[in-house]
Amino acid sequence: MPHLVILYTGQLDAEVNMTTLCRQMADAMLTVQDEQGQQVFPTGGTRVLAYPAPHYAVADGGAAGQAAGGTGDYAFVYLNLRMGRGRSEAVQQGAGQTLVEVTKAFFAPVMAQRHIGITLQIDVGPEVFDAKHSNLHPLFNKV
User: Fold this and answer.
1) Burial class (CB in 10 A: 0-12, 13-18, 19+), 101
2) What's the DSSP call for residue 117?
3) Is the bond leading into 126 cis (omega within 30 degrees of zero)?
4) What percent of the chain has pLDDT over 90?
């Protein structure tokens, strides 16, 4: 952990590079610090995955967007960060603010051209089962 999953309406693939967003979000996650100035999220555990939805329905189907002078082709992005327990509320809020600022900057050009909704949510344990198997962490745990 942390894992950030991005779900989005598929038409955005023609307008933005989601791999770029994934990298920007992972990089931003690695900058989050706790009250002592320590990196909050382990480098080897930070993952960002994006999935397009080829089938979707958003809001009213486009009527209000057309009435406002747009195409009525709404887009939507849902970002869900899942992190383990043990981080303070201030750290959780700071992580959220960091990620929402990166998201807003990334999608600003798109929002200038179309109607788009963006939601970022953070979920924190409790986990009922949490197993990990990885050879990534040793790459970053060198002393």
Assistant:
1) exposed
2) E
3) yes
4) 83
